[in-house]
Amino acid sequence: MTMSSELFSDLSAPPPLLTGDDVARVVDRVAHQLIERAASSAPDGAADGGLADLVLVGIPTRGAPLARRLAARIEAFTGTAVDVGTVDITLYRDDLRTRGVRALEETRLPAAGIDGRLVVLIDDVLFSGRSVRAALDALRDLGRPRAVQLAVLVDRGHRELPIRADYVGKNVPTSRAQQVRVKLAEVDGVDEVRVLNGGDR
Amino acid sequence: MRKHLLEAGDLDRADATLVLDTAAQIEAALAGREVKKLPTLRGRTVVNLFFEDSTRTRISFELAAKRLSADVINFSAKGSSVSKGESLKDTALTLEAMGSDAIVVRHPASGAPHRLAQWVKGSVVNAGDGTHEHPTQALLDAYTIRQRLGRLDGVRVVLVGDVLHSRVARSNVWLLHTLGAEVTVVAPPTLLPVGVGSWPVTVGYDLDAALPKADVVMMLRVQAERMNASFFPSAREYSRRYGLDARRMAALPDDAIVMHPGPMNRGMEIAAEVADSVRSTIVDQVGNGVTVRMAVLYLLLGGSPS
Questions:
Q1: What's the mean pLDDT in B161-184?
Q2: Is the pLDDT of residue B302 over 90?
Q3: Which residues of A touch B29 (CB under 8 A)?
């Protein structure tokens, strides 16, 4: 039974929106954009094209490995290591009462902190914007960055708050009933992005 | 997680580990911050209902709730309508009518938090009931052991002293057993409860024999206020046979730690030089208490899927 239903869903499911190769290309492109923007927005006389000023902060779960990948690609392209951190937003969510408590994930900032630096928040999917708002609230308690930007792998629309991404891997028009399912090798064993119709799992 | 935390037995291994992991993440999230406050429980009200004296537990719960942005009401029986004869039930219903979401209760009668949990709609956290249990103390002790030794599974813990009157000992025995530690209790026979044979522990009467095999020594306070009979001939004799002094501490393995839930009777169950030594985790325990209680309040009050 299980075998045949899996086979059936494989046949009927549309191909992934992004395959593993696509995800790698998108990460490379966003890494290049981060290098460019860091250089153009760097304070005068900054060393390393402004990269020393940059901190990539991932929002768990999947933003955290994305931030590490972006940092690794930036280092591969420029030879400069970039600071990486993660900020867990669970304790800052505005929907705890209705969605219930969940296990916390790691919050770790680089030793140099975020004060006066350019923080780029990294997340997998930008949807309502509420996660980003919670992350901004968390950052406010952690320090005072010079500026905060946002990079996401997929922007699927349907914002409920005045928030937009500075770097977008892929814009995907979706309906509210659909789900965007991002899988990353570090968490799920495989890289791919799929759009599922309501009810699909 | 369940709705209440009344005794260590309410927590299975997964729940207890979730509390410890949550506390560790909260500690990491707050480390090195200027603003040690999280907005998580904004708009919730936590009542500290204390019918018995307490310094660290009450302040610790108050701080934990405030760091999660909950509103805190401190109630102590002295100076309240309890002295006019108001019952526990009426007191609790009054507090709930004013909108409390959780009641943290300490009471001299064993089982009072269980009764309370049947009367109120909110969560009840046992902050020590008589000689029964003190589950958050056991959680912070387990957290401290894991922090210092890196593990709980297979850790050999020796609990020494007034086990009969100690709610800390009861909670620790059950929680540490759940988490895989091997617990030994060492006490004069007069200070062991009747049912100790049914506990998941090894019982001993000789402290010197137990120390060389211990990873953790947990000294219990001699509870003079609960001793309505003579349980040992003199304080001096107790201290000589069951007190932890520098000579006994030297018999411990190199990385073993010394714990005490406080308040200490220095010179009675623990010598001052031991309490202030590098092996002692007594100050860490107090600091960890706030973090662990934040984790408990978050997990009980954070919300449930509707």
A1: 96
A2: no
A3: 88, 91, 104, 107
**Cβ–Cβ of B39/A100 closer than 8 Å?**
no
Nearest CA among A122, A94, A91, A93 for reference residue A105: A91
Mind telling me how many Å the CA of A132 is from chain B's nearest CA? 15
Phi-psi region at B13: left, alpha or beta (left = phi > 0; alpha = psi -120 to 50): alpha
d(Cα A133, Cα A59) in Å, to the nearest integer? 11
Is the bond preceding B57 in cis, omega lying within 30 degrees of 0?
Answer: no
User: What is the arithmetic mean of pLDDT over B217-227?
Assistant: 88
User: CB distance A91–B298 less than 8 Å?
Assistant: yes
Choose the closest CB to A137 out of B25, B28, B39: B39
> What are the chain A neighbours of B306 within 8 Å (beta carbons)?
98
Q: What is the pLDDT of residues B282-296, one digit of tens each?
A: 999 999 999 999 999
Q: Any chain A CB within 8 A of the CB of B299? A: yes
CB contact under 8 A, A137 and B38: no
Nearest alpha carbon to residue B257 among B139, B169, B143: B143
Q: Would you tell me which CATH number, out of the four given (3.40.50.1370, 3.40.190.10, 3.30.70.100, 3.40.50.720), belongs to the domain B8-132+286-301?
A: 3.40.50.1370
Q: Which fold has domain B135-282?
A: Rossmann fold (3.40.50)
Q: Between chains, do B303 and A97 touch, taking CB under 8 Å as contact?
A: yes
Query: For the structural domain made of A16-40+50-196, what CATH number should be given?
Result: 3.40.50.2020
Question: Same fold for the domain at B8-132+286-301 and the one at B135-282?
Answer: yes
Least confident of A42-46, A63-67, A103-107, A138-142: A42-46
Domain chopping of chain B, boundaries: 8-132+286-301, 135-282
Backbone angles phi, psi at B163, to 5 degrees: -65, -35
* Residues of chain A neighbouring B299 (CB-CB closer than 8 A): 101
- Whether A9 has a pLDDT exceeding 60, the answer reads no
Dihedral angle sign, alpha carbons of residues B121, B126, B127, B131: positive
HSE-up of B193 (CA within 13 Å, CB side)? 15
Which positions in chain A touch B22 (Cβ < 8 Å)? 103-104
What does the domain layout of chain A look like in residue ranges? Answer: 16-40+50-196
Of B122, B43, B64, B41, the closest CA to residue A90 belongs to B41
